[in-house]
Amino acid sequence: MSMVISFSLFSSCGKGSTASTDETASTDGASWIIDRFDDIKVLRYEVPGFEKLPLNQKILIYYLSQAAKCGRDILFDQNFKYNLTVRRALEQIYTSYEGKKDCEEFKAMEKYLKKVWFANGIHHHYSNDKFKPEFSQEWLSKQLDKYTVELPIEKQLLLDIIFNKDLYASRLNQTDGVDMVTESACNYYEGVTMAEVEKFYADMIDENDPRPISYGLNSKLTKDEQGNVVERTWKVGGMYSDAIQQIVFWLEQAAGVAEEPQKSIINTLVNYYRTGDLREFDRYNVLWVGDNESNVDFVNGFIEDYGDPLGRKASWESTVNFMDSTACRRTQIIAANAQWFEDNAPINPAFRKKEVKGVSAKVITVAMLGGDCYPATPIGINLPNADWIRKEYGSKSVTIDNITYAYDKAAQGNGFNEEFMLREEDRARIAEFGKLGDDLHTDLHECLGHGSGQLAPGVKGGELKSYTSTLEETRADLFGLYYLGDPKMVEIGLIPSLDVAKAQYADYIMNGMMTQFARIELGKNVEESHMRNRKLIAEWCYEHGKKDNVIEWVKQDGKSYIVVNDFDALRKLFGELLFEVQRIKSTGDYEAGRKLVEDYAVKIDYDLHKEVLERYNKLGIEPYSGFVNPDYELVKKGDEIVDVKLVPQNNYIEQMLHYSKEWSFLPSIN
Ligand code: ZN
User: Fold this and answer.
1) What is the pLDDT of residue 22?
2) Ion ligand 1: residues, Cβ under 5 Å
3) CB neighbourhood size of 293 (10 A)
């Protein structure tokens, strides 16, 4: 529930080649792009301010960064049981290959391997579809023999995994009405049906517990030899033990140099990794959310449940960051007005939080990305996820400035807005206010949107089942959109004028109804929850504003454009939809939630989709981006650490091979 992935990865937020006073507009985005393949571009990010940190904070970042690199194999295995087997077999061929490296088959395998690294597995990180190899089965089979690649499974099974398009076709299948557990290739369940999973956890949950445990968050559900449904917990001594021990080792080093309260926080996390006790994880989260003093902060654990069709099991991720104090002014203003925003939200007063607690919002500089935050990374994070902790203790919210900055730089001059945005006035507003609008929308989404509202008595929060993520993202986005156009924003000095909202609204609607489809294969539905939420909002507003022509399709020179005619009316529609989505969440109205998503968020018009892809492909922009990490090195005098050096990296293949060699701790089958 707590990640924002870049809202418009391919629209240059305000730094396009349109008439702009931005002095840096002529800078070539290409210098930020270090690799491109298929639908992916890989960027580098900078870590401004690292050198100026006090030594003890640099050392802390170093240790936390080491811990962040230890869980990569966990995520590969979580995504699919045979991912590590595939990755290692291909890496062995890739590194020992003696033939011509410009032959078509080898180049196609390299591309496939780059995609596997990027997605942390053989399924696309966003669409969840299995990759289609462009090299032949015969060729791979020969290479496996030639380089005597040792496999933990039959060779034929490996070939089927890669080449049989019907086998393990989707990592995450959330089609209405199917058994999402058996139809999804992710490795959170094995040998159990969706009904068995639901019963297993329904039996565990204590309806009367005001502080419910996030059952199932850190385990795989399977059956023992007697056929009983059992959990395999991810902890020291449990599943993924070899990697978790490494994480624990580096966290303990970090605790050794951290000051209170951070020292105790890290120790509590270590204890959770040792015991697997989810109560301990809750204790850790309560401590973590209360720490607003530490300049260096981190996420490390089983956090987000997007990868589980039932939204229960969490993938492993990590980030290490420190505060960007100058940029924090923006989020401090938002946090200081949090209660006003809640009190004035366009929702049923019964569902408003009476007292907004612990809204903390920071702008941060990220120093290391790991697990499910790497290479594709969120631009904002809001944690913890447990509803009761958010209610009693609040949540921490961050916007990652050095990542959005890199996105922006890389998008400069790519021609996107010129192609898809019809009106010059919209393009001009985006050129001027696009970045600010995006940043503020992310801030509002993260630090207020997700944290806002409350459930009706008796509603537990799991009622919306597979629609939970989409509807939660919808709610947070609507909160951000609605308030971005509020005069209050000008009054408290967050925006110079409501043109910022107009820029964001025009961009959002265009993205939701049209340009985001560039990321989807022709003929497919929208599956990813953030994409679904954007389509839901845009399409719903289009339909409900139709009689007043609030949003309009325009055809010009054979091209389709979507334009917003009435920004005030659109803002009212955002408010109306927020009212309904909050009601759905607060009352757990599954049927209404299902209908909203299925009616507005899933199906794409075929002809429009085709047109978008054709126009988009002509621009030659990859729709997805990710990052390589910098490295950090200890500088020593004798035994004493005297400095930590930041070493920029700019080779994607090298980093991936390095991580696979030095930061790989799990067996191929777990
Ligand atoms: Zn979100």
Assistant:
1) 30
2) 4, 473, 476
3) 9
